[in-house]
């Protein structure tokens, strides 16, 4: 018994091509489907000149250059004699540079269509780097094949039939370290959606053959499948080319009649046929067998056979009709290293089995992990709009090891990964911010800093709900900035970075934000709070001891004081304070007087003339308050910078400072609600300084007496003399001398002060609010006292007895927990002020609705969080 054909290798030898070209040239195309419609085709001749295109002389296919489909690689010509080569085989694109290089095809018919994709590789000694090379081929993010080149004369072809799930189809070549990848041709063909359907897998072509003496493709096959001739031998009579055959009921695969009209009939009437090919035991085989009767059988003749694969029954008994029957398996068969398809005659049959054409595929599921389409489209558009020269190829987010540089993605849904950050800092961008970015709806961080961007900052940036960080520094954007953007920044939901220009940006603390870090889920023991009050300014009397001349120089040089309209002369200050009649406070640096400007009450702090230190503080406070505006930070009304008299004018805070209300035996007891509100106010002010300002500002002297209360008991932070603004790099590790007030100083800050030091101090203030005890009283630290009292189980005992039990237990516990978290010894364990604000607001809300938010973790009190390790 002889085997017909087999093992048609994918590497089609050159002689076959010469043959094929020759035949085609001689052949007058017989148009079964008289159509010359290439609208579903993309036919790329890799490596020809940019913009070139031509019609293949043998095929009539319209070839285009690969320019526009890929951005990397170099064009080469094969060094073989080009006789007998198809035109596309004479050029190629080689990729010496990147690890991954991708073609991106965007067929106009879009996704959810079935396409045939074909990639071709003919080495042709194009470079001197040796013909042996091996590289991987990917379809999108899925492995497709390994191309192993050992013979420059053999063309390697890979073909796949694939239902796409995105509009962009990328074909990527991966350098696996065995020589530069290259490619000669790339073909995409739109198939009808009902062709090759019913498989959950994609079909990788092994063989596609028929009985004929020439290769068939477009235009005989309007889908440009390539049908290679099956070789025959003496066991076969003739190939019968029959006019009998018609497209049958099962015409789903649209096999051209050119192909199925042919069948070879064995000479002997008893002959079992075998079709063999080699494969792998891991293969999942999908087989299409196309059968149609080509003989007119006599009444006493019967053709009937069964079909077996590797000895296992597949189909039958089959008695072919003149209309086409296609046999196929929807569930893949397990392959073997050498596969045998047997056509065995049944006992009834007196004619040998026939078949007309055969297609063998292996099926494999492509996961098609990909970036969500709108995101991918947006980022590609952004790339092309700015003419970015980055190696951004293939899918933006997949595979993860090839994530586009500057991007980060959320992979929660691998079928639609989302872009969550984009960093185009210093990328030479110019022009306006492109609208494509509006489609990156999940983006959290966008860094466009240090480019040459101009025009208006677009409104849509404010509509990106997830955007938490926006860096626009170092560009030339027009003003004003969109109000919504500023509002978000002010509210704290966006961290906006841009240089402050002119008055219109003022009051928004642009270089930062008071973001609500809901996304960072720092687990804080819950709580509630309150806080504080405050007082007036501290003060001082004045007089600057330095020589007049020297002070004057200082004043002139200092750019802090350029804002003339807030500056007052000493005699104006005298006037405002009615010649310093009413003292409302006194402190280490000076005295605070009551005053009035146009009927509005103010507080005027006059620096004592005693120290240079005082002048420094004066400068830093004025500078800072001029830039910072927040409802919970005392408003700077003006200042006086006369040669030797310095003063600062603030809004008047009628109810003094929080310390006075807590400790000084005021008869008006601050209610629990009011304490919560005060705590919340003060926390918001601090959160704004920490997270809303760029660089962040560390107050460095948070304490009850620096929290002032206005006539409505709204709390505002005051006394910024020690405050420092730190550059971004310094924000977490600030080397500066520890300042502050005993009892409130961060123990974990050996001569470093950070925003977390303020959190610590604020925790102490919270404890004071809860207990009405001073930070240090009778030499006992309030933290130790609270912890030991709670540890003994007397939680109620720590609450200010003056409240006489008029407090909400739930919010009280939460407040205690929050305070304890704030005074964690390790600064890393402390919440941020944004977290604190969030907790306090929750508590406040719970308090106001007389209904505490259930929180199982907070009751009973979490003692673990209270036994913070002591200093090592
Ligand atoms: C590549 O092909 C050559 C020749 O067929 C073979 O010897 C070699 O093992 C192949 N390489 C790989 C990695 O399969
Ligand atoms: C190919 O087959 C056709 C009939 O199918 C025949 O007419 C033609 O002569 C054959 N050509 C060659 C080169 O064998
Ligand atoms: C079938 O019938 C034909 C005449 O129609 C005859 O020549 C032939 O021998 C018969 N063959 C068989 C197998 O009976
Ligand atoms: C098919 O026929 C061949 C040869 O005629 C035989 O060896 C084989 O066992 C048959 N297969 C089956 C499954 O009957
Ligand atoms: C695709 O996603 C699946 C999970 O759905 C994951 O297991 C696989 O590793 C991903 N593949 C790639 C190439 O990222
Ligand atoms: C991307 O984001 C994840 C999660 O936010 C983070 O762990 C990872 O480091 C980021 N990768 C890059 C390259 O920024
Ligand atoms: C963006 O990249 C630059 C340098 O490449 C880096 O300095 C900057 O921190 C990055 N931006 C963000 C938001 O991570
Ligand atoms: C945003 O995405 C939609 C839907 O994919 C698309 O129609 C639109 O053109 C995109 N907008 C921009 C500016 O790219
Ligand atoms: C920035 O853009 C302006 C206006 O388009 C142009 O004149 C200038 O040369 C650009 N600067 C750089 C560094 O590209
Ligand atoms: C832009 O600002 C953000 C937030 O301040 C920062 O993380 C990032 O590093 C900045 N980018 C550059 C290039 O400095």
TrEMBL record:
Classification via CDD domains: STKc_IRAK
GO molecular function: ATP binding; protein serine/threonine kinase activity
Chain ranges of the Protein kinase domain: 578-853
Coiled coil: none
Compartments, as annotated in UniProt: Membrane
Family annotation (PROSITE patterns): PROTEIN_KINASE_ATP, PROTEIN_KINASE_DOM, PROTEIN_KINASE_ST
Gene3D superfamilies on file: Phosphorylase Kinase, domain 1, Ribonuclease Inhibitor, Transferase(Phosphotransferase) domain 1
A Pfam family assignment: Malectin_like
GO cellular component: membrane
Highest taxon in the source lineage: Eukaryota
Membrane topology: Single-pass membrane protein
UniProt enzyme class: transferase
Catalytic activity: L-seryl-[protein] + ATP = O-phospho-L-seryl-[protein] + ADP + H(+); L-threonyl-[protein] + ATP = O-phospho-L-threonyl-[protein] + ADP + H(+)
Residues that, per the record, bind ATP: 605
SMART domains recorded: S_TKc
SUPFAM superfamilies: L domain-like, Protein kinase-like (PK-like)
Transmembrane segments: 522-544
Keywords: ATP-binding, Kinase, Leucine-rich repeat, Membrane, Nucleotide-binding, Phosphoprotein, Receptor, Repeat, Serine/threonine-protein kinase, Signal, Transferase, Transmembrane, Transmembrane helix
Signal peptide span: 1-34
EC number: 2.7.11.1
Record PANTHER family: OS07G0107800 PROTEIN-RELATED (PTHR45631), SENESCENCE-INDUCED RECEPTOR-LIKE SERINE_THREONINE-PROTEIN KINASE (PTHR45631:SF202)
Protein name per its UniProtKB record: non-specific serine/threonine protein kinase
